Please model this.
Amino acid sequence: MTTAPGLQLVNRDADGVDLAFRADVLAGLAEPQKAIPARWFYDDEGSQLFEDITQQPEYYPTRAETEILTQHSAAIADLIGPGRAVVEFGSGSSVKTPLLLSAIAPSAYVPLDIAGDFLRASSAALAEKFPGLPVLPVEADFMRRVELPAEVADLPKLGFFPGSTIGNMIARTATDLLRSMRETLGESALLLIGMDLVKDEDVLLAAYDDAAGVTARFNLNLLERINRELDADIPVASFAHEARWNDPFARIEMHLVAREDVSFTVSGQRFAMRAGESIHTENSHKFTKRSSQQLLAAGGWEPRARWTDEAKRFSLVLAESRPPRSAP
Ligand code: AVI
Model:
């Protein structure tokens, strides 16, 4: 494994408080529409709850994308060809990554993640499954250009970004990421990206508010995490999980809604909320064929092929890096 020694990605104060977490929470709670970035969901508890969400009957994206990778593996492999270095943006899923790697005969696998522990554990598991494949994890924030290991410098690259995680970003951030991916992967790279599709509102709302209450626990865990880590006293039982469909933006929004008037302290700062007021915690954008094409184009990628699951709930798009041009 090749992680830079001493690489310090999380900035903590003397009490071990993650300073970026505290800054985001304090700034977000001071906004007129309170909001906290979704990336703070994923502490150990939240990561486990997300894994549990993917097992819920209502949460179709993981099963639909796995179906695509299984059913269309031959066509996907044909277009990608053998010998590419697969660069995964994120630590890799225990199911989807092996499906892709077994389908395409890659020359190396390079997972990028800011969460080093998670990265090391998933890389070790992968290396065991694919004994002949060089596995070269890089601990890095992939929202910016990442320096890839020298071993893959001259190999053609395939970026892999499954799960429709791109949908958790607003268009501006998603575009920035797609551009950074081009810079990380270099000329003539390919990108295989999962993009969830617009569909019946009831199906979407159920996927983000499952009957077993796992997504509700995932959302509320953010408040528990603030209490655990930021010296806070948020009355978690006074909040309810809510999933909303925002049609103009074609996205599911998750909110934490105050059931009654509440006041609480976070890191010495006092906040108050009225009953019904919410903290906006996540966007999950859904795409059409057209909107996915537009977003990819804005980020410098041209779709080459597109697959959906049988029920047309989810899409996997293979795109090619395009040099910038100003003429039509
Ligand atoms: C990680 N991401 C793609 C998930 C989604 O569907 O937007 C996160 C999630 N939030 C609630 N359920 C799942």
Residues 53, 61, 163-165, 167-168, 208, 215, 282, 284 surround N,N-dimethyl-L-histidine (CB under 6 Å).
